[in-house]
């Protein structure tokens, strides 16, 4: 098992969500948080930070921040729900930007559409105050090793 | 380089998230625009291996692709990313700067189509490919909304 997955497994055991973000420097850089909901689903959250703005005139979060937040949600979701020796690797990801992201908290949740032996397909959705009005959706393939 | 393109490349690097990533303009050749992000430990995805997170590549592709559209424009206008697809071809090499070279290969009346490649200095040895579409502004208010 890789060093990262060993550390991850130990942190998952104690539900140390903050500890998991600490081992992913970029997720910490964005300010990502996550936890299990009462229904046992993983919910990701990105509190508003000025450095995540991409459009100063609207203002709106940077499309790359939304993308990075969604990709990271997919990665952590997969590591959380399955036992593996190596971290999954993103093969491709496709983002649809549906609405501008306001300078507010952004949420995300993943759905494991299909888990094969070698590849997992995830649907990742981001929203702000109203879940029925998504900000962006992503579809991604991750290589499982 | 048109005065418009020059103004936009200088403006993009000052946008809060682009400044946070440390985006730097690395040139325009023909219609191909290049931005660069230097390696920094806080941009890493896997803390054990030191590989830069895909999210950095996403921001780099989104910003460079948007910039490349301005190489084709004669007047300032706002635009918003409609969709973006990234293929990760290989892991980025730790401690190396990542470049993104993008071009707008079709500027239609309402939509701009772009393609981008991320690399460590040689576009023929790519880390990632990105294809994006941007919705062009229908308003006449330049930079009034949805610039990146």
Largest interchain contact? A-B, 44 and 43 residues
- Overall spatial form of chain B: globular
User: Could you give the order of the helices and strands of chain B?
Assistant: HHEEEEHEEEE
Largest sheet of chain A: 6 strands, antiparallel
Instruction: Report the average pLDDT across residues of chain A.
Output: 95
* Major sheet summary line of chain B: 6 strands, antiparallel
- Identify the quaternary structure here: heterodimer
The tally of strands of chain A reads 8
- Counting H and I runs of at least 4 residues, what is the number of helices of chain A? 4
Runs of chain B in which pLDDT lies below 50 for 5 or more consecutive residues are: 144-148
Q: What is the N-to-C succession of helices and strands of chain A?
A: HHHEEEEHEEEE
Q: Please list the strands of the largest sheet of chain B in the order they lie side by side.
A: 1-2-6-7-8-5
Q: Span between N and C termini of chain B?
A: 20 Å
The Rg value of chain B, from CA coordinates, equals 15 Å
Amino- and carboxy-terminal Cα gap of chain A: 11 Å
Write out the strand line-up for the largest beta sheet of chain A, numbering strands in chain order. 1-2-6-7-8-5
Helix content of chain B: 10-25%
